[in-house]
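Structure ticket #2291
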Amino acid sequence: MKVRKLHHVAVAVSNIEAVMDDFARILDMPRAPIQEVKSQAVKGCLIPIGDSEIELIQPTDPSSGVAKFLEKRGEALHHICFQVPDTNEALKELEGKGMQLIDKQARPGLAGMVGFIHPRSTLGTLVELCHPVSGKGH
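Resolution: structure written out below.
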């Protein structure tokens, strides 16, 4: 598996609009369009920062994984995402190497086609792999 770059870091937030307002005001970051990802029960945005992005994610369902994360840890770094040439191929390769996966097949996400590696296989950090598709991510 060849990692092309660090695509984004994601921060779980309880109010995406307020955080984006703060980032724009304090850090002079651009505002980004907010999209809903129903399959992941979040709404989020990707704010471009140089060659990478900051992803803000807010749960849309109180029983979702991101909502549970916020309850347990508060607003904090949620995951890091590496861009790969092909998410499905990367997931297959990692599974063959004994990595525990959350996703065995890529699924649509804010950054394109995405798949997650379980934190038990990555030193406690949730890792996402992505392959941007036209109009999504960099």
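Closing remark: The mean pLDDT is 94.
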